[in-house]
Amino acid sequence: MEQSEDYIFPIEDALEMIFIFDKTGIISYANAAAKKKLERKSDLCGKHISDVFPNTFKHAEDGFETNYPFGKEVQDLLAYRTNLTCFPVEAKIVAGGEDSQTYICMANDVLEKEFLNKEIEKVREEAQEALKVKSEFVANVTHELRTPVNGVLGNVKELLCEEWDGETEKALRLIERCCGDMNKIINNILDFSKLEAGKFSLEPRKFHFRNMMDYVKSHHINKITEKGLEFFMTVSPQIPEYVIGDELRIVQILNNLLSNALKFTALGKITVEVVKTARVNDKIELFFIVADTGIGIDKEDKKKLFQSFSQVDASISRKYGGT
């Protein structure tokens, strides 16, 4: 019986054993996995299906005899090699067409399946152990980070109990808030495992939007001035005074973008713009733009933006720092 090449091609490289045999029990096709697992150097074509499953199929004058429930659920069978050793398989045999002139058998090596399942479980356990070790490491590191931050914060709070001129008090208040933000970030590092597990969540709260933007500006304005750059910030008047969102995350993102702009801009200006792009019921969509006159990124290199520890050129890392 001839088999269509288009029909055979997808199953030839299948991991499970696949046989096609006719109503007389003669095998017309066996894929590579069947030949390998049954240790058949010669082609299985022309052999009887009972040579592979003698406990399930028996020769008969006009074909074969069997009590196999064709087309039903997977059955446990024994497959025999040429040396008469056998191994357990999970098999399903279905009729190849309405006239039932051919049958298709698909069989999985149970021992191999069990081995693979054990390997998968082993890899899973190793991954869990690695995650546990990493979580413990992160916990220890964040503890070491928290100690000096709290030391600075404690001293600043003591200083704030005294009388200071306006500029000094403003600077101390900024240090106090920076320490507070640092502690929040440290807490977020402790939640790193949640982020990996896809369980990280935002914490929306009501906050004063323009005060937040002023805080972001105060975070960078001294360094911007030191480099002789111009700085412009524009907040659309359409944005409400108070909004609900995760203020800490917004500040983190803006700080990262501004730090990057500051790092790669030697001359010119840095601009921050916030506009309202949409409103649906009581929700608004804001669009943040951070632009600079720095070295920029070529179009073909933009795909590297979100790759870990990658830069457009090694010379950039040497000149500007970073990884």
Structure description:
- The structure is a single chain.
- By secondary structure, this protein is an alpha+beta fold.
- The mean pLDDT is 83.
- Among the domains are: 5-110, 2-Layer Sandwich (Beta-Lactamase); 202-292, 2-Layer Sandwich (Heat Shock Protein 90).
- Helix 6 packs parallel to helix 7 (247-263).
- The strands form four sheets. It has a five-stranded antiparallel beta sheet with strand order 2-1-7-6-5. Strands 9-11-12 form a three-stranded mixed beta sheet. The chain has a two-stranded antiparallel sheet with strand order 3-4.
- A hairpin with a 6-residue loop joins strand 6 (86-95) and strand 7.
- The protein is built from eight helices and twelve strands.
- It has helices at 5-12, 32-37, 110-160, 166-190, 192-196, 209-226, 247-263, 314-320, and strands at 17-22, 27-30, 57-60, 63-66, 75-80, 86-95, 102-109, 205-208, 230-235, 242-245, 269-280, 283-292.
- It is elongated, with a radius of gyration of 35 Å.
Compact overview of the structure:
This protein is of the alpha+beta class and 323 residues long. It has helices at residues 5-12, 32-37, 110-160, 166-190, 192-196, 209-226, 247-263, 314-320; strands at 17-22, 27-30, 57-60, 63-66, 75-80, 86-95, 102-109, 205-208, 230-235, 242-245, 269-280, 283-292.
